[in-house]
Amino acid sequence: MEQLSAVIKNNNHNLKTAILYEALHKKPIFDSYRKFCNLVGQDAMEYPDFEFWYYRFYRGEMDFDYDRSADPTPKTIMDMPVKLMYKIMENLDTVERTYLRSMNQSIKDIVDSRPLSFEKIEIIIDDAGMGWDLDEKKFICEQNEKGCLVEIPNFPHTIKDEYFLTKGLKCLSPVLNMPNLKVNHIFLHIIKDTVYLNNLLPIPFHVKSVSILAFDIHKSLELLSAMNPGELESISFDTGGIITEEDVLEIYETEQFKQAKIIDSQIFLEVDNLRRFSHLESFECPLAYSEPGDFQRIRDMISTFKQFKSCKLERSEYGNHFDIRTVAEALEAETPFGPLKTITYRYRIPESNEFLKFKIKENEYRLFIKIVKIR
Protein backbone atom coordinates (compact mmCIF):
# COMPACT_ATOMS: atom_id res chain seq x y z
CA MET A 1 0.00 0.00 0.00
CA GLU A 2 2.84 2.38 0.85
CA GLN A 3 4.53 1.64 -2.50
CA LEU A 4 1.28 2.37 -4.36
CA SER A 5 0.87 5.67 -2.47
CA ALA A 6 4.42 6.69 -3.37
CA VAL A 7 3.85 5.89 -7.06
CA ILE A 8 0.73 8.04 -7.18
CA LYS A 9 2.16 10.86 -5.05
CA ASN A 10 5.32 11.25 -7.15
CA ASN A 11 3.54 11.40 -10.49
CA ASN A 12 1.35 14.39 -11.39
CA HIS A 13 -0.63 12.39 -13.98
CA ASN A 14 -1.39 9.67 -11.40
CA LEU A 15 -2.58 12.26 -8.86
CA LYS A 16 -5.07 13.65 -11.37
CA THR A 17 -6.19 10.12 -12.24
CA ALA A 18 -7.01 9.52 -8.57
CA ILE A 19 -9.02 12.76 -8.49
CA LEU A 20 -10.83 11.80 -11.69
CA TYR A 21 -11.82 8.50 -10.09
CA GLU A 22 -13.41 10.36 -7.17
CA ALA A 23 -15.19 12.87 -9.44
CA LEU A 24 -16.65 10.12 -11.65
CA HIS A 25 -18.19 8.50 -8.58
CA LYS A 26 -19.79 11.87 -7.70
CA LYS A 27 -19.04 11.58 -4.01
CA PRO A 28 -19.17 14.75 -1.83
CA ILE A 29 -15.97 16.67 -2.45
CA PHE A 30 -14.80 16.80 1.14
CA ASP A 31 -15.29 13.05 1.58
CA SER A 32 -13.41 12.55 -1.69
CA TYR A 33 -10.54 14.76 -0.50
CA ARG A 34 -10.32 12.89 2.78
CA LYS A 35 -10.17 9.54 0.92
CA PHE A 36 -7.56 10.99 -1.46
CA CYS A 37 -5.36 12.12 1.47
CA ASN A 38 -5.68 8.73 3.16
CA LEU A 39 -4.46 7.10 -0.07
CA VAL A 40 -1.55 9.35 -1.08
CA GLY A 41 -0.76 11.32 2.09
CA GLN A 42 -1.89 14.54 3.74
CA ASP A 43 0.80 16.62 2.02
CA ALA A 44 0.26 15.39 -1.53
CA MET A 45 -2.04 18.23 -2.58
CA GLU A 46 -3.67 21.24 -0.91
CA TYR A 47 -7.46 21.27 -0.82
CA PRO A 48 -7.88 24.28 -3.21
CA ASP A 49 -5.87 22.45 -5.89
CA PHE A 50 -7.85 19.26 -5.36
CA GLU A 51 -11.07 21.24 -5.58
CA PHE A 52 -10.00 22.85 -8.90
CA TRP A 53 -9.28 19.53 -10.62
CA TYR A 54 -12.22 17.72 -9.05
CA TYR A 55 -14.77 20.21 -10.45
CA ARG A 56 -13.08 20.30 -13.90
CA PHE A 57 -13.39 16.52 -14.16
CA TYR A 58 -16.89 16.64 -12.67
CA ARG A 59 -17.92 19.01 -15.52
CA GLY A 60 -16.39 16.65 -18.11
CA GLU A 61 -13.25 18.71 -18.79
CA MET A 62 -10.66 15.95 -19.02
CA ASP A 63 -7.53 17.86 -20.10
CA PHE A 64 -4.85 16.69 -17.65
CA ASP A 65 -2.34 19.16 -19.17
CA TYR A 66 -4.48 22.27 -18.74
CA ASP A 67 -2.21 25.30 -18.04
CA ARG A 68 -3.45 27.11 -14.93
CA SER A 69 -0.83 29.89 -15.11
CA ALA A 70 -3.14 32.12 -17.17
CA ASP A 71 -6.03 31.77 -14.71
CA PRO A 72 -6.66 34.58 -12.22
CA THR A 73 -5.32 33.95 -8.74
CA PRO A 74 -8.12 32.26 -6.79
CA LYS A 75 -9.54 34.16 -3.88
CA THR A 76 -9.17 32.79 -0.37
CA ILE A 77 -10.87 33.62 2.88
CA MET A 78 -7.93 35.87 3.75
CA ASP A 79 -8.88 38.16 0.84
CA MET A 80 -12.08 38.99 2.68
CA PRO A 81 -12.21 42.54 4.08
CA VAL A 82 -11.54 42.70 7.82
CA LYS A 83 -14.85 44.53 8.36
CA LEU A 84 -16.68 41.60 6.78
CA MET A 85 -14.78 39.16 9.02
CA TYR A 86 -15.91 41.14 12.08
CA LYS A 87 -19.47 41.02 10.74
CA ILE A 88 -19.24 37.23 10.49
CA MET A 89 -17.97 37.01 14.08
CA GLU A 90 -20.97 39.01 15.31
CA ASN A 91 -23.21 36.18 14.09
CA LEU A 92 -21.20 33.43 15.79
CA ASP A 93 -21.49 32.39 19.40
CA THR A 94 -18.35 32.07 21.51
CA VAL A 95 -17.86 28.34 20.85
CA GLU A 96 -18.17 28.87 17.08
CA ARG A 97 -15.59 31.64 17.31
CA THR A 98 -13.14 29.22 18.94
CA TYR A 99 -13.51 26.96 15.89
CA LEU A 100 -12.97 29.94 13.57
CA ARG A 101 -9.75 31.01 15.29
CA SER A 102 -8.28 27.51 14.78
CA MET A 103 -8.22 27.90 10.95
CA ASN A 104 -4.93 29.80 10.67
CA GLN A 105 -2.81 32.41 12.44
CA SER A 106 -4.21 35.41 10.55
CA ILE A 107 -7.82 34.54 11.38
CA LYS A 108 -6.77 33.74 14.96
CA ASP A 109 -5.32 37.26 15.29
CA ILE A 110 -8.56 38.80 13.98
CA VAL A 111 -10.73 36.77 16.36
CA ASP A 112 -8.46 37.49 19.33
CA SER A 113 -8.68 41.24 18.67
CA ARG A 114 -12.28 41.16 19.90
CA PRO A 115 -12.83 40.05 23.54
CA LEU A 116 -14.69 36.77 23.98
CA SER A 117 -17.05 36.13 26.87
CA PHE A 118 -19.15 33.35 28.36
CA GLU A 119 -22.03 33.74 30.75
CA LYS A 120 -21.30 30.34 32.32
CA ILE A 121 -18.67 27.61 32.07
CA GLU A 122 -19.23 24.36 33.95
CA ILE A 123 -16.52 21.67 34.21
CA ILE A 124 -17.13 18.28 35.85
CA ILE A 125 -14.35 15.67 36.05
CA ASP A 126 -14.46 12.29 37.78
CA ASP A 127 -12.92 8.82 37.30
CA ALA A 128 -15.27 7.91 34.44
CA GLY A 129 -15.01 10.99 32.26
CA MET A 130 -15.19 14.73 31.94
CA GLY A 131 -17.93 17.02 30.76
CA TRP A 132 -18.07 20.74 30.22
CA ASP A 133 -20.77 23.23 29.31
CA LEU A 134 -19.91 26.43 27.45
CA ASP A 135 -23.07 28.47 27.98
CA GLU A 136 -25.75 26.17 26.54
CA LYS A 137 -23.43 23.84 24.57
CA LYS A 138 -22.50 20.52 26.17
CA PHE A 139 -19.33 18.47 25.58
CA ILE A 140 -18.51 15.02 26.98
CA CYS A 141 -15.50 12.65 26.96
CA GLU A 142 -16.21 9.32 28.62
CA GLN A 143 -13.80 6.44 29.05
CA ASN A 144 -14.71 2.97 27.76
CA GLU A 145 -12.93 -0.22 26.74
CA LYS A 146 -12.09 1.14 23.27
CA GLY A 147 -10.78 4.54 24.33
CA CYS A 148 -13.01 7.52 24.93
CA LEU A 149 -16.43 8.42 23.59
CA VAL A 150 -16.49 12.04 22.42
CA GLU A 151 -19.72 14.03 22.18
CA ILE A 152 -19.43 17.48 20.58
CA PRO A 153 -22.36 19.69 19.48
CA ASN A 154 -23.25 19.35 15.79
CA PHE A 155 -20.86 16.40 15.33
CA PRO A 156 -21.64 12.67 15.47
CA HIS A 157 -20.44 10.70 18.47
CA THR A 158 -16.96 9.31 17.89
CA ILE A 159 -14.66 6.85 19.59
CA LYS A 160 -11.06 8.00 20.01
CA ASP A 161 -8.16 5.75 20.93
CA GLU A 162 -7.03 8.19 23.61
CA TYR A 163 -7.28 8.64 27.36
CA PHE A 164 -10.39 10.71 28.05
CA LEU A 165 -8.53 13.47 29.89
CA THR A 166 -6.00 13.80 27.09
CA LYS A 167 -8.70 14.19 24.48
CA GLY A 168 -10.98 16.31 26.66
CA LEU A 169 -8.27 18.78 27.59
CA LYS A 170 -7.23 19.06 23.92
CA CYS A 171 -10.74 20.34 23.23
CA LEU A 172 -11.24 22.46 26.36
CA SER A 173 -7.81 24.05 26.98
CA PRO A 174 -7.80 26.21 23.81
CA VAL A 175 -11.05 27.78 25.00
CA LEU A 176 -9.85 28.46 28.56
CA ASN A 177 -6.58 29.93 27.26
CA MET A 178 -8.11 32.32 24.71
CA PRO A 179 -6.70 35.86 25.09
CA ASN A 180 -9.06 38.43 26.65
CA LEU A 181 -11.52 35.72 27.69
CA LYS A 182 -14.15 36.96 30.15
CA VAL A 183 -16.43 34.65 32.16
CA ASN A 184 -19.33 35.65 34.38
CA HIS A 185 -19.53 32.38 36.32
CA ILE A 186 -17.44 29.20 36.34
CA PHE A 187 -18.45 26.01 38.16
CA LEU A 188 -15.60 23.55 38.90
CA HIS A 189 -16.54 20.08 40.15
CA ILE A 190 -13.20 18.23 40.32
CA ILE A 191 -13.27 14.95 42.22
CA LYS A 192 -10.41 13.17 40.41
CA ASP A 193 -6.86 13.55 41.69
CA THR A 194 -4.54 13.53 38.66
CA VAL A 195 -1.52 15.45 37.35
CA TYR A 196 -3.43 16.05 34.10
CA LEU A 197 -5.35 18.80 35.92
CA ASN A 198 -2.38 20.59 37.49
CA ASN A 199 -2.69 23.48 35.02
CA LEU A 200 -6.38 23.33 34.24
CA LEU A 201 -6.84 27.11 34.37
CA PRO A 202 -4.56 29.86 33.08
CA ILE A 203 -3.36 32.42 35.63
CA PRO A 204 -4.92 34.86 36.11
CA PHE A 205 -8.35 33.60 35.11
CA HIS A 206 -10.84 36.43 34.59
CA VAL A 207 -14.17 35.59 36.19
CA LYS A 208 -16.72 37.35 38.39
CA SER A 209 -18.18 34.34 40.20
CA VAL A 210 -16.80 30.88 40.97
CA SER A 211 -18.21 27.69 42.51
CA ILE A 212 -15.60 25.13 43.58
CA LEU A 213 -16.16 21.55 44.69
CA ALA A 214 -12.89 19.58 44.80
CA PHE A 215 -11.65 16.29 46.23
CA ASP A 216 -9.57 18.03 48.92
CA ILE A 217 -8.76 21.45 50.35
CA HIS A 218 -5.43 21.75 48.55
CA LYS A 219 -7.01 21.33 45.12
CA SER A 220 -9.72 23.81 46.09
CA LEU A 221 -7.08 26.37 47.08
CA GLU A 222 -5.15 25.76 43.86
CA LEU A 223 -8.27 26.42 41.76
CA LEU A 224 -9.20 29.49 43.82
CA SER A 225 -5.69 30.94 43.51
CA ALA A 226 -6.01 30.97 39.70
CA MET A 227 -8.84 33.53 39.86
CA ASN A 228 -8.01 37.20 39.34
CA PRO A 229 -8.38 38.96 42.76
CA GLY A 230 -10.55 42.06 42.77
CA GLU A 231 -12.33 41.00 39.60
CA LEU A 232 -13.68 37.93 41.42
CA GLU A 233 -16.74 39.08 43.37
CA SER A 234 -18.47 35.88 44.48
CA ILE A 235 -17.02 32.60 45.83
CA SER A 236 -18.96 29.40 46.50
CA PHE A 237 -16.75 26.88 48.24
CA ASP A 238 -17.04 23.20 49.18
CA THR A 239 -14.39 20.54 49.53
CA GLY A 240 -13.80 16.93 50.42
CA GLY A 241 -11.26 15.40 52.76
CA ILE A 242 -10.09 16.53 56.19
CA ILE A 243 -9.85 20.28 56.79
CA THR A 244 -7.65 21.67 59.54
CA GLU A 245 -7.80 25.07 61.17
CA GLU A 246 -4.60 25.97 59.29
CA ASP A 247 -6.34 25.14 56.00
CA VAL A 248 -9.26 27.40 56.88
CA LEU A 249 -6.96 30.28 57.79
CA GLU A 250 -5.10 29.81 54.49
CA ILE A 251 -8.38 30.36 52.65
CA TYR A 252 -9.07 33.53 54.63
CA GLU A 253 -5.60 34.84 53.81
CA THR A 254 -6.01 34.57 50.03
CA GLU A 255 -6.43 37.81 48.12
CA GLN A 256 -9.41 36.24 46.37
CA PHE A 257 -11.25 35.92 49.72
CA LYS A 258 -10.10 39.32 51.01
CA GLN A 259 -11.36 41.13 47.92
CA ALA A 260 -14.59 39.18 47.39
CA LYS A 261 -18.05 40.61 48.12
CA ILE A 262 -20.06 37.40 48.48
CA ILE A 263 -19.10 34.07 50.10
CA ASP A 264 -21.09 30.82 50.14
CA SER A 265 -19.06 28.28 52.08
CA GLN A 266 -19.75 24.77 53.38
CA ILE A 267 -16.74 25.01 55.70
CA PHE A 268 -17.72 25.44 59.35
CA LEU A 269 -17.21 28.96 60.65
CA GLU A 270 -15.70 29.50 64.09
CA VAL A 271 -17.26 32.52 65.76
CA ASP A 272 -13.80 33.98 66.48
CA ASN A 273 -13.14 34.04 62.72
CA LEU A 274 -16.32 35.96 61.90
CA ARG A 275 -14.42 39.28 62.02
CA ARG A 276 -12.60 38.15 58.87
CA PHE A 277 -15.95 38.50 57.05
CA SER A 278 -16.24 42.22 57.83
CA HIS A 279 -15.54 43.28 54.21
CA LEU A 280 -18.32 41.15 52.73
CA GLU A 281 -21.74 42.27 51.53
CA SER A 282 -23.25 38.82 51.95
CA PHE A 283 -22.21 35.39 53.22
CA GLU A 284 -23.68 31.97 53.90
CA CYS A 285 -22.08 29.19 55.95
CA PRO A 286 -22.61 26.66 58.74
CA LEU A 287 -21.53 27.54 62.27
CA ALA A 288 -19.08 25.41 64.19
CA TYR A 289 -19.89 24.36 67.76
CA SER A 290 -21.01 27.40 69.73
CA GLU A 291 -22.55 28.33 73.06
CA PRO A 292 -25.79 30.36 73.35
CA GLY A 293 -23.81 33.45 74.30
CA ASP A 294 -21.93 33.29 71.00
CA PHE A 295 -25.04 34.45 69.14
CA GLN A 296 -24.88 37.78 70.93
CA ARG A 297 -21.23 38.03 69.90
CA ILE A 298 -22.26 37.31 66.31
CA ARG A 299 -24.88 40.06 66.46
CA ASP A 300 -22.46 42.59 67.94
CA MET A 301 -19.73 41.84 65.40
CA ILE A 302 -22.03 41.98 62.38
CA SER A 303 -23.47 45.29 63.57
CA THR A 304 -20.01 46.84 62.98
CA PHE A 305 -19.63 45.53 59.39
CA LYS A 306 -19.87 48.57 57.10
CA GLN A 307 -20.50 46.70 53.83
CA PHE A 308 -22.88 44.12 55.30
CA LYS A 309 -26.25 43.52 53.62
CA SER A 310 -27.31 40.00 54.61
CA CYS A 311 -26.17 36.56 55.72
CA LYS A 312 -27.48 33.05 56.32
CA LEU A 313 -26.10 30.90 59.12
CA GLU A 314 -26.89 27.28 59.87
CA ARG A 315 -26.20 25.40 63.07
CA SER A 316 -26.86 21.81 64.06
CA GLU A 317 -28.50 21.64 67.47
CA TYR A 318 -28.39 17.87 67.67
CA GLY A 319 -26.77 16.87 70.96
CA ASN A 320 -26.00 20.47 71.94
CA HIS A 321 -28.82 20.76 74.48
CA PHE A 322 -30.35 24.05 73.40
CA ASP A 323 -33.06 25.07 70.98
CA ILE A 324 -34.50 28.10 69.19
CA ARG A 325 -35.83 29.58 72.44
CA THR A 326 -32.40 29.43 74.05
CA VAL A 327 -30.86 31.27 71.11
CA ALA A 328 -33.64 33.88 71.02
CA GLU A 329 -33.23 34.57 74.72
CA ALA A 330 -29.47 34.87 74.28
CA LEU A 331 -30.18 37.59 71.68
CA GLU A 332 -32.50 39.30 74.19
CA ALA A 333 -35.48 38.82 71.89
CA GLU A 334 -39.00 38.57 73.27
CA THR A 335 -40.21 34.98 73.11
CA PRO A 336 -43.88 33.96 73.47
CA PHE A 337 -44.99 30.98 75.55
CA GLY A 338 -45.52 27.66 73.88
CA PRO A 339 -43.69 25.76 71.12
CA LEU A 340 -41.53 27.84 68.76
CA LYS A 341 -40.57 27.05 65.18
CA THR A 342 -39.74 30.56 63.96
CA ILE A 343 -39.02 33.88 65.55
CA THR A 344 -38.29 37.36 64.13
CA TYR A 345 -36.18 39.85 66.02
CA ARG A 346 -35.02 43.39 65.24
CA TYR A 347 -31.86 44.82 66.75
CA ARG A 348 -31.06 48.50 66.47
CA ILE A 349 -27.40 49.12 65.67
CA PRO A 350 -25.90 51.40 68.34
CA GLU A 351 -25.48 55.07 67.32
CA SER A 352 -27.33 54.42 64.07
CA ASN A 353 -30.79 54.45 62.54
CA GLU A 354 -30.11 51.04 60.97
CA PHE A 355 -31.38 47.69 62.21
CA LEU A 356 -30.40 44.05 61.97
CA LYS A 357 -33.43 41.89 61.30
CA PHE A 358 -33.09 38.29 62.52
CA LYS A 359 -35.33 35.49 61.30
CA ILE A 360 -34.62 32.25 63.16
CA LYS A 361 -36.13 28.97 62.04
CA GLU A 362 -35.89 25.52 63.62
CA ASN A 363 -36.21 22.45 61.40
CA GLU A 364 -35.15 18.84 62.02
CA TYR A 365 -32.44 19.47 64.59
CA ARG A 366 -31.10 22.49 62.76
CA LEU A 367 -31.29 26.22 63.32
CA PHE A 368 -31.38 28.52 60.29
CA ILE A 369 -30.61 32.16 61.00
CA LYS A 370 -31.08 34.86 58.38
CA ILE A 371 -29.81 38.35 59.17
CA VAL A 372 -30.59 41.37 57.01
CA LYS A 373 -29.47 44.93 57.53
CA ILE A 374 -32.37 47.37 57.25
CA ARG A 375 -31.37 50.89 56.34
From TrEMBL:
Domain F-box: 74-121
Biological processes per GO annotation: innate immune response
The species this protein was found in: Caenorhabditis nigoni
PROSITE patterns in the record: FBOX
InterPro entries: DUF38/FTH_CAE_spp (IPR002900), F-box_dom (IPR001810), FB224 (IPR040161), Mos1_HTH (IPR041426)
Pfam family, one: FTH
Name recorded for this polypeptide: F-box domain-containing protein
Regions crossing the membrane: none
